[in-house]
Each structure stands twice: as structure tokens, then as C-alpha cells.
Design goal:
The structure holds 2 protein chains of 2 kinds.
Chain A (H helix, E strand, L loop, with lengths): L3 H9 L1 H32 L10 E8 L6 H13 L4 E7 L18 H10 L11 E3 L5 H5 L3 E4 L15 E5 H7 L9 E3 L4 E8 L16 E3 L8 E8 L4 H15 L3 E2 L5 E3 H8 L1 H35 L1 H9 L4 H38 L8 H25 L4 H6 L1
Parallel strand pairs in A: 3-8, 5-7
Antiparallel strand pairs in A: 1-9, 1-10, 1-11, 2-9, 4-7, 5-8, 6-7
Chain B lengths: L1 H14 L1 H28 L11 E5 L20 E2 H10 L4 E12 L9 E8 L3 H5 L3 E4 L4 H5 L4 E5 H8 L8 E4 L2 E9 L23 E4 H6 L9 E2 L14 E9 L3 H20 L11 E4 H8 L4 H31 L1 H9 L4 H35 L13 H26 L4 H7 L1
Parallel strand pairs in B: 4-9, 6-8
Antiparallel strand pairs in B: 1-11, 1-12, 2-11, 3-4, 3-11, 5-8, 6-9, 7-8, 10-11
The chains are: A alpha+beta, B alpha+beta.
Chain lengths: 410, 437
């Protein structure tokens, strides 16, 4: 294939070719970054929580009685909730569930020395201390949530407290590694400034109610602490198909046991709804990003094929002449394909540079991570393929121009 | 002449229907996406109290100790006021009007048997709140500074809550049970929902909430009613969790200043007050840290526009830009293909300017059609924004200026895109083209 004639034709259409190149370049730059953002968000929303997500339902009850005995009320409530047909188990927690955004944290140090260091620095950064989320709950929490205990044991009945800090805790594997890197965490005593809390068990995974950074999202601990407030969350475990029915029955049961309470219909959800709510912005963003990436590729393909169409119409006569002079249909087809390849390639080279530049800007203003380099060749391939696809039909039309056209119009 | 050009443009566009449709589609998509996001940004940053906002200011003191370290995600405690500072500024009366306020959620226990108890959001404020913000009343009025001082158990209800509790007869003079106390209704506001709710705590929902009741702030503090928003304390002693303590911020404070001289004087007053507090050993930071934000300046400082919305706007504008480049390329080859026709017109005496105008009108026509399509697409886009559960979602509506802006943007974009091709086409040398005809 001779490149010379193609290049000299392009030189005669400098401006048009430049515009097309620019369009491909911007598309390439934006699509690479958009694809990367989509990948980031997808990764964010698919984070596992460590609990039996599709078997849990949560209902909030807030007592409006003055005085009263919350602990006794919760026990009565739990007994009647467990009696609902389909409920396998039920526990009460104060307010925290993974990803429900109601969080309480507790500054915790691996030892007293670490705390002193933190006091000296006036910051917990670099002291070895961390700020894990704290989950409380009635006995049976581990089983009801479906947490996987990988070391140690569950709490014993006499370890439960109703107020104040308990003497023992179960922590996540991630927290164990952050508090005691390279050491056996089980049996260690954490220090919070007033109390020592002994680690009696380690669960595989339990996500925080609010995500922060991927590195510390799994830093949670569970306290053997019964909720003693007037507002409480009941977590119910049931078969996935029973969840809606169980929730309705639970609301009715709770109001029957004691009507002096508020049950907010917005806080009566299956766990999957809580999770979807937490990531709702990300799912919106993913669909928007996807739509704009597809839209851009579509518009670019339109531009390429529209222009190719024009050029084919414009050059009908010269195509006829070439055919008369012995060029095969394949030659004509390849001519347009090569021309397209040259323009798109130039666009891609420029586009890849722009993609990296755009990523740098996004990194500065939107805390986006660095674009991994493998996105670039993939983006290049996709655009190349798109260009070839878009030029195929105009090029085919050019290839079927009969040689006789050349003689007709002279 | 213009009519003739219009006819020519329509003829030329009709000759290549598919291509015209593609160009209109491209500009429509770009405009639709951009206008959706520009509208969202517009409603997010709109003036919440037009006509009044230029006189409203919020002072900010910095009572934090020198060694206070601001955690990354935590709210800045200096965004709000401590009780002693708010009361001092209130007593000083240096502004035309001033009020301290905080949000709260209370349980309403309706007297009528048909209604179950429910929770409502409202505001605890001092007397000037209503006059300063220009809250309209349906019945009755707000309370006076004397009521504040006397800790009167009075309440102002929103029209919505009033109707819910008392039906069509207004509840003026009646008692409402809020939390565990009875309050006498002295006023009912007409619907008043500034968007955004600029006077709320920076962490509050600024667009979807509205205050359903107002009651005197000193009463709320006395009765220890529940407070919404951030309560940031930095004291080490037991006093730190006390609402009236000097080491916890939780109040918002707004003042009305009518002239630039008053603004200047109030700014100086804040610095003087900080210096005085520093001399007393309460403040540790330089007195010049005291700030006075205008209403719009405060909204900018709070940065109510979510990052995602900004990103979406840039994405939409990038999309529009690619669409414009695309249209420019298509128009260019379209115009150049008509070199012959253009050359004939040039040879018959048309000036370059005439050719330019003719081609410009053709691109503007594409812009008009694209703008109309863009409007439709933007309405669909806004409809989908309204279905997001975000705080601001319900406000995503286009007003008249935005509608006209959409059309204008579409025409400007397509004329811009047509500029280069038209310029190139009217520079075609006629003689060369005519020879090959």
C-alpha cells in the first residue's frame, strides 16, 4: 500500500483532517478518564460488608415514653419479633449497621505507650492509635449478622454491659492488623485512656457505617453492650424471600407490644435497601458516566463516517479513474481504511497525552487516583476499532464505484 | 436578503437530510447534557433571599485554642458560635438587627385523636429572626425581645404544620405540645422556604428541609430541647458538653447591616470584641481572625455544590465541546463540497461577507433546531435529576431565563462551530473552481 497518495490528499484537506484528529483526540482523552472513573466507582460500590446482606432486614423503633425501662422493653420486643413466622434470629443494636451512616467511633490505642505518644503529638496520626467504629448489640449479634469468627470466641453472657465501656471486645481482622502489625492480636489489651479492653475474638470482615479511605474502612470493633437508649434498631434475619413480609409483621408486632413508639417507614428497610441508599450517588454517577462515554463514542463514529461519506462522494471520479487504471476493489477499500487509520492514529497519539493531562487535573481537583497506564493502550485499541467500523460502510460504497464513472463525466 | 439566505440554507439542509439530522442530534445531545447540569448548578447557587440578601451578614469568631488541630472530615468548630459569644453580640446591638439561632427536632403530640405523634424540624431563634429575614406571616406575629428575656413558652408554626394540627381554623392562642412542654401559638407563617437554607448549620440538609416551627432560643436552652447540627467542643473539663459553656460551638448568628459604613463598623467591632476576649484570656488566636461573611459569600465558603455535580458539569461541557468539533468538521466538508456553487455566486458579484453570512445562517439554523432538541433532552435530564434522592433534587427545574439561555447557548455553540468552516469556504478562489466546473 502506498502512503504517499493518501498523505498528499490529506494535505489538500488539512483543516478537515485536523478537526477530525482533534475530535478523536478529545474523545480518547475523555473516554479514557471516564472509563477509569467508572472502574473506580464500580469498585467502591462492590465492597463487601462482611454480613449476610440479603438475609437481613432492619427496623427502627423510637420510644416516646418518659422514663420506662429500655432494656426490658428491648427484651420483650425481641421475644415477640423472634416469634414472627420466618424470623430466624433477631438482635437489637443502638443505631450502627455497616453503611447506614449512623456511626460512633472510639479512639483506641494498642498500648498505654502509644496513647502517650498520641498525646505528645496532639494527633493520633503516627502514634499507632486508630479510630475504629464501634458496634454494640444484644447477644447473638455475630450469628444474626452472619459474621465469620476467624479466631477466638463469641462473648459470654456475663461479659455484657448496658452502659459504660466493656472489658472485652471482638475486632475485625483489618483492625487487628492496624493495631498490632505483625503480632498476634488475640488476647491483647487495647487502651482508650481510661480502660483496657481485651480482644477475645477476631471476625473476618465488618465494614464501617461510613466509608472513609479504603485502608481504614474495615476498622471496626464489636462491644458486648446492650443498647439502652429509647431509640433502637432491630436486625432481623430471614430467608431473602421473606424479608418484606417479615418487616411488615415486625412493625405491626412492635406497635402491638407497645404503641407508645414511633416507627418511621423510612427506617424500615431490607439491608439491601440500606446498601443501595448508601451508594445511590455512585450508581447515578456510574450511569451518567457510562451514558456520556457511549454518547461521545457514538458522536465520534458519526463524525468519522459522515466525513468519509463526503470524501467518497467527492472523489467518485478519481476512484473511477483509479479503477480504470487497474486498481482492484480491495485497493480502494484499503485506501479509505488506511486514510482513516492515519487520522485516527494521529488523534489517538494526541488523545493519550490529553488523557494523562486531564487525569492530572482531575487528581488535583477531585481526589481521583492516578490513571493506570494500561488504560491508554486499551483506549487506543477501542478508538482504532471504532474508526475502522465507522469507515467500513463508506469505504465499501467507494469500492463498488464502477470504472465506467471515470469515462462518463470527462 | 436575509429571507433569501434562510431559504437557501433550508434548501441546503434538506438536500442532505441524514447529515443534517446527525448534526442536530449531536448539538442537541451536547446542549441537553450541559443545560441539565448548568440548571442544577444554577439552583444550587441561587440567591435564597433576593432583595434582602445583600444586607445579611454572618460574623465568625475563632474561639479555638492555638493547639487545636482540625481533623480532615470533621466540621470546623469555628463555623458556629458558642453561647457566651452569641449572647454578647446579641446584647451589644451593634447591627440594625441580629439573631442567634439553632435547628432542632421535636416530637409533636397532636391533641386530636386521629393523629399519631410525629417529629418535626424547626428552629430556636431570638426575636429579630422574623424581621431580619422578612418571614411572612399568615396570622399573628413573632415574639419580642421581652418574650426572649421572660422565657415565654410561645411558638410560631409554619402554615403547613398549623393546618395539619388545627385544620382550616388557625391555631393562634391554642396550645401545642412539643416534646414534653406546652407552647402557646402566637403566629403562623406563610410558606417560607429559602433555598438554600443558608442560616442552618453547615452540616444540615440545605435544600429539602423547611422549618415547621420557631420558638425562643433561651426557652430551648432552659428546657434542654434537642439540638440538631454539629456541637463541637474542645474543652477538657466537664463544662465542655454544656450548651451554655464557653468551649462548645453550636449556634448560628446573623446580622442585618444596611450600609457599607455599618458593615465596616461591624467588622471593626468583631475585631475589637476578639481582642477584648483575648485580653481576658478566653481567645488565643489573633483578633483579625474574626470574619464577617455576606450571605452569598458565606454560601461560597460553605461550598454547597457537591463535587459530583461539578464533575458532571465538566463532563457535559466536554461532551458539548466534542460535539462542536464534530459539527465543525462536518460543516467544513459540506461547505467545501459546495465550492463550485460558492464560486459561481462570487463570480456573479457576491462579496465574501455575503457568502459568510449565508453559511453562518445555515449553521445558526442547525443551532436553533439543536437548541429545541436540547431543551427536550434537558427536560428529560432534569426529570431524572429530580428522581435522585439528593437533598437538592426537587429544585431541579428550569425557569424562563434558563430556557432562553438554552436556546442562546445552542445557537452560539453552532455558530461558533460554523465560524471556521464558513471562513474557510468564503476564501475559496472562484477562478480555480470555475475552471473545473
Amino acid at each position: 500500500m502506498q502512503l504517499r497518495p493518501i498523505l498528499s490528499t490529506l494535505r489538500r484537506h488539512k483543516l478537515t483532517a485536523t478537526l477530525l484528529t482533534l475530535q478523536v483526540a478529545f474523545t480518547c482523552a475523555i473516554v479514557c478518564n471516564v472509563a477509569f472513573m467508572i472502574a473506580n466507582r464500580v469498585q467502591r460500590i462492590s465492597v463487601p460488608t462482611g454480613i449476610a446482606e440479603n438475609e437481613l432486614s432492619v427496623i427502627q423503633s423510637a420510644s416516646i415514653e418518659k422514663g420506662g425501662n429500655p432494656l426490658a422493653q428491648h427484651t420483650t420486643d425481641l421475644a415477640s419479633l423472634r416469634a414472627i413466622d420466618g424470623v430466624q434470629s433477631a438482635v437489637a443494636v443502638s443505631y450502627s449497621m455497616p453503611l447506614n451512616q449512623d456511626e460512633s467511633t472510639h479512639g483506641t490505642c494498642p498500648s498505654k505507650q502509644a496513647l502517650d505518644r498520641a498525646m505528645q503529638l496532639n494527633s493520633i496520626k503516627g502514634s499507632g492509635c486508630v479510630e475504629p467504629s464501634v458496634y454494640d448489640g444484644t447477644p447473638g449479634l455475630i450469628g444474626t449478622l452472619g459474621l465469620r469468627l476467624v479466631a477466638g470466641r463469641d462473648f459470654q453472657p456475663d461479659e455484657y454491659v448496658s452502659a459504660g465501656t466493656p472489658a472485652v471486645a471482638i475486632i475485625t481482622r483489618a483492625l487487628a492488623q492496624h493495631l498490632y502489625p505483625g503480632k498476634q492480636a488475640l488476647g491483647q489489651s487495647m487502651y482508650d485512656g481510661d480502660n483496657y479492653i481485651r480482644i477475645v475474638g477476631i471476625v473476618d470482615k465488618l465494614l464501617r457505617p461510613n466509608l472513609r479511605k479504603p485502608g481504614v474502612d474495615g476498622d471496626s470493633m464489636i462491644w458486648p453492650q446492650r443498647p439502652d437508649g429509647s431509640s433502637v434498631l432491630y436486625a432481623l434475619r430471614s430467608a431473602p424471600q421473606d424479608r418484606q413480609r417479615v418487616l411488615k409483621a415486625a412493625a405491626a408486632t412492635l406497635l402491638k407490644v407497645n404503641p407508645n413508639r414511633l416507627i418511621n417507614s423510612h427506617r424500615m428497610q431490607t439491608y439491601m435497601q440500606i446498601r443501595a441508599e448508601y451508594f445511590q450517588r455512585d450508581t447515578t454517577m456510574i450511569s451518567l458516566l457510562l451514558a456520556s462515554a457511549l454518547g461521545l463514542l457514538f458522536v465520534s463514529a458519526l463524525g468519522i463516517s459522515g466525513l468519509a461519506n463526503f470524501w467518497v462522494q467527492q472523489r467518485t471520479r478519481s476512484i473511477g479513474i483509479r479503477r480504470t487504471l487497474g486498481a482492484t476493489r480491495g485497493d480502494i477499500l484499503r485506501y479509505f481504511q488506511t486514510e482513516n487509520f492515519l487520522i485516527v492514529s494521529a488523534g489517538i497519539v494526541l488523545g493519550l497525552l490529553l488523557a494523562v493531562l486531564l487525569n492530572l487535573i482531575l487528581m488535583k481537583h477531585y481526589e481521583l487516583p492516578r490513571l493506570p497506564l494500561y488504560y491508554l493502550p486499551i483506549g487506543a485499541l477501542v478508538l482504532c476499532a471504532l474508526g475502522q467500523l465507522a469507515v467500513l460502510s463508506p469505504a465499501r460504497r467507494a469500492a463498488v464505484v464502477p470504472p465506467v464513472v471515470a469515462t462518463r463525466s470527462v | 436578503m436575509l429571507g433569501y439566505y434562510l431559504g437557501m440554507a433550508l434548501h441546503s439542509l434538506a438536500r442532505n437530510k441524514v447529515l443534517t439530522a446527525l448534526m442536530v442530534l449531536a448539538i442537541g445531545l451536547g446542549i441537553g447534557a450541559s443545560m441539565t447540569m448548568i440548571t442544577v448548578l444554577h439552583v444550587l447557587t441561587d440567591d435564597p433571599l433576593p432583595g434582602r440578601s445583600s444586607q445579611l451578614f454572618t460574623p465568625h469568631l475563632d474561639p479555638l485554642p492555638l493547639n487545636h488541630k482540625q481533623g480532615g472530615d470533621n466540621p470546623d468548630p469555628a463555623d458556629n458560635f458558642t453561647w457566651p459569644d452569641a449572647m454578647a453580640l446579641l446584647k451589644a446591638q451593634r447591627a440594625a438587627r441580629q439573631a442567634a439561632m439553632a435547628g432542632g427536632t421535636l416530637l409533636v403530640r397532636p391533641a386530636s385523636a386521629g393523629l399519631r405523634p410525629f417529629k418535626v424540624d424547626g428552629r430556636y431563634a431570638t426575636a429579630d429572626f422574623f424581621a431580619m429575614f422578612g418571614v411572612p406571616f399568615e396570622h399573628g406575629q413573632g415574639w419580642s425581645a421581652a418574650d426572649d428575656a421572660a422565657r415565654a413558652h410561645v411558638v410560631v408554626l409554619s402554615g403547613t404544620l398549623d393546618r395539619k394540627l388545627f385544620g382550616n381554623a388557625s391555631g393562634i392562642g391554642q396550645a401545642v405540645r412539643l416534646g414534653d412542654h406546652d407552647f402557646r401559638v402566637i403566629g403562623v407563617t406563610a410558606d417560607w422556604q429559602p433555598k438554600s437554607m443558608f442560616y442552618a448549620d453547615p452540616g444540615a440538609q440545605h435544600y429539602s428541609d423547611a422549618d415547621q416551627f420557631f420558638l425562643p432560643l433561651p426557652v430551648a436552652v432552659d428546657l434542654k430541647l434537642s439540638i440538631n447540627g454539629h456541637q463541637s467542643s474542645w474543652g477538657k473539663n466537664d463544662d465542655s458538653n454544656n450548651l451554655t459553656g464557653a468551649t462548645m460551638t453550636w449556634l448560628q448568628f446573623w446580622v442585618q447591616l444596611d450600609s457599607p459604613a455599618q458593615v465596616q463598623a461591624y467588622r471593626q467591632f468583631l475585631v475589637d470584641y476578639s481582642a477584648q476576649q483575648r485580653a481576658l484570656g478566653r481567645f488565643e488566636r489573633p483578633p483579625t481572625d474574626a470574619k464577617l461573611y455576606s450571605l452569598m459569600g458565606w454560601l461560597t465558603h460553605e461550598n454547597l455544590v457537591p463535587n459530583d455535580v461539578r464533575l458532571q458539569l465538566w463532563l457535559a461541557l466536554g461532551f458539548l465541546f466534542v460535539c462542536m468539533v464534530n459539527i465543525a468538521a462536518l460543516l467544513l466538508s459540506k461547505f467545501l463540497r459546495r465550492s463550485g456553487e460558492i464560486s459561481v455566486r462570487r463570480a456573479l458579484g457576491a462579496r465574501r461577507r455575503d457568502i459568510f453570512l449565508q453559511l453562518g445562517i445555515e449553521s445558526a439554523l442547525i443551532g436553533v433546531a439543536g437548541g429545541v432538541l436540547g431543551l427536550v433532552i434537558a427536560q428529560i435530564g432534569l426529570w431524572s435529576v429530580r428522581h435522585r434522592p439528593d437533598d437538592y433534587a426537587q429544585m431541579a427545574q428550569m425557569d424562563m431565563p434558563m430556557l432562553l439561555g438554552t436556546l442562546a447557548l445552542a445557537i452560539v455553540a453552532s455558530v461558533l462551530a460554523g465560524l471556521l468552516p464558513a471562513w474557510r469556504a468564503c476564501r475559496v478562489p472562484p477562478a480555480l473552481q470555475l475552471k473545473t466546473l
